[in-house]
Amino acid sequence: MSRVFAIFSKDVKSYFFSITAYIVITIFLTLSGFFFSTAMSYFSLYSFQASSQPYLSTEGLNLTDAVLGNLFFNICVILLLMIPVLTMRLMAEEQKEGTLELLLTYPVNEKEVVLGKFLAAGFVFAVMLLPTMTHLFLLRWLGGTFEWGVVASGGIGLFLMGMAFISFGIFSSSLSENQIIGAVISFGFLLLLWMLAWVSQFVPPAFAGLAGEFSLIRHVEDFFKGIVEVKNIVYYLLFTFFFFLLTVWRLEARKWVR
Amino acid sequence: MIEVHDLAKSFGKIRAVDGLTFNVQEGEIVGLLGPNGAGKTTAMRILTGFLTPTEGTVRINGLDMLKFPRKVQSILGYLPEDVPLYKDMTVESFLKFVVRMKGLPIRKRRDAIGEAVELCKLEDVRKRIIGKLSKGYRQRVGLAQALIGRPKVLILDEPTSGLDPRQINEIRQLIRNLKGKQTILLSTHILPEASMVSDRVLIINKGKLVATGTPKELADRLCSGQELFVTVRPSGKLLAPLVDKVPGVLSIQRMSVGDDGVERYKIISDKSQDVRSGIARALVAEGVDLVELRSEAMSLEDVFLKLVTQEDPFAAAEAESSRGGN
After folding, report:
1. Residues β-bridged to residue B209
2. Does residue B248 contact residue B270 with C-beta atoms inside 8 Å?
3. What does pTM read for this prediction?
4. Cβ distance A125 to A155 under 8 Å?
5. Residue (of B300, B314, B304, B322) closest to B36 by Cα position
6. Can you tell me the distance from the alpha carbon of A113 to that of A150, in angstroms, rounded to the nearest whole number?
7. Among the partner residues A18, A101, A108, nearest to B50 by beta-carbon distance
8. Å from B202 to nearest chain A CA?
9. Chain A interface, Cβ < 8 Å to B
């Protein structure tokens, strides 16, 4: 475990030593701030209209659904773009620089290496996500009210989904020594899985359910409504675990190349 | 300490290592010598557990590498070829990372780092970023990470490549100073290095062991005769009949005529006899003006070239006997 921690702290330091972490976090926060303020503007506009036109339906016109629910979805989209950038160098750079040889000839096994890197990316992801809490404090400060339960479950959903993204990102980074390839593959694959939810209406009914079940976005929707379902948690955990193992296998298989 | 038996590794149709068998005793410094592409790096990668062999076994300190990779790796120090390092770390934070990765007990870590820094003379650059260091310093950082915590076995892949002559000397000195304390296997394609640093040399070519022995043994066993270079001022006399009378001389051959008119000859003699004084006496007695008399033992370089450029029956027999014997 101390070796996992050694790799974790090496990679976290390396994120913050290079400008990667700062750039990714800054852009993420800028975009999420932009989406937050846009959602707020729309919300106040509709609220104003609703108050002057009493026959308009006010269903769903509350801060929790209209602002935060929107923000959660928008953050998902930003993560889809940002996490591949965060994970692309983790394995690719070790291979390109040859340091993988150094790393894997220390008395450490592949699982520990991948776990250390996974946790490092997870840590940066958490650091990136936490400042979005300021949106909530801002809402409170402005006198808004919202449901904390929905916020908590939404946060859990975002975190689980982010970890799933990271797990796949590390796997695609391990495929080659080229960081760009790592990023493109992870972005492409995640986007594809994301869009499965949309095609579920067009495929034969037998597959519709299946397509939905595999979709990355379908499982996070419930979290954003404040519903924490075991099925959804299991989906993300399995997804994360599956690609974690695949990365470990990929590293082990490299030894047997012939 | 290191027992390698019938090791083979194929990449596609290429057999990078092909039936390699050798032993390294505890405390020995052994040089793995071979031209580029001979399979040195692949062999070392297998020894350190970075690659798995297609065939054969590696035992280090009595433990099978395939069965107990972590245990074996914990007594290994390895300097890979081209010295890969984390360029964005400082020397100190990198070495701290290494002691943690090697699983050294916490109370020993400080001392281990201090010792490695001292041995490799890294005090001045402790706080510097590795990526900004010169090649020589980087090499020493690589060496420091290998020998930190005094592993029983050191495996060094071309530890002096790319350095300037002074740095090469320093590194060689450093390795010589480790003699007796650690078992060292180092690879090189530079012959003087192998003969200077190591107790024993293993010459490999095309993944096969072609010869093994101390540098002197190899030179002695593999060259049939001794070469003697004689330079004389032309005196009108034929040298061949004079020299042929000296016992032990096998042949004489005129090489060249120098700018100042001197003539050079190459004499091959039986290596068990020293013919120098005999030749000198014979020439002077006949009034030949002797300018230079120089003997040259066949160098390791010649042996090496001979071994790797042609199929030498002697070498093949040598490899065969070492395979069975060890």
Report:
1. B204
2. yes
3. 0.82
4. no
5. B304
6. 35
7. A101
8. 23
9. 2-3, 5-7, 10, 13-14, 17-18, 97-109, 255-258
Contact: B88, A108; criterion CB under 8 Å:
no
Identify the CA nearest to A226 among candidates A147, A164, A129, A163.
A147
CB atoms B73 and A13 under 8 Å? no
Among candidate residues A166, A117, A163, A110, the one with its CA nearest the CA of residue A12 = A117
**How far is B20 from A174, CA to CA, in rounded Å?**
32
Which tokens is B289 given? 């003006």
Tokens 């979805």 sit on residue: A73
> Which residues lie closer than 8 Å to B162 by C-beta, 6 or more apart?
B135, B139
Mind listing the pLDDT tens digit of every residue in chain A (258 residues)? 789 999 999 999 999 988 888 999 999 999 999 998 888 888 888 888 877 877 766 666 777 777 888 888 899 999 999 999 999 999 999 999 999 999 999 999 999 999 999 999 999 999 999 998 888 888 888 877 778 888 899 999 999 999 999 999 999 999 999 999 999 999 999 998 888 877 777 777 777 777 777 888 888 888 888 888 899 999 999 999 999 999 999 999 988 876
Rounded Cα distance, B185 and A6, in Å: 28
CA distances for A190 relative to A185, B53, B157, angstroms = 8, 37, 41
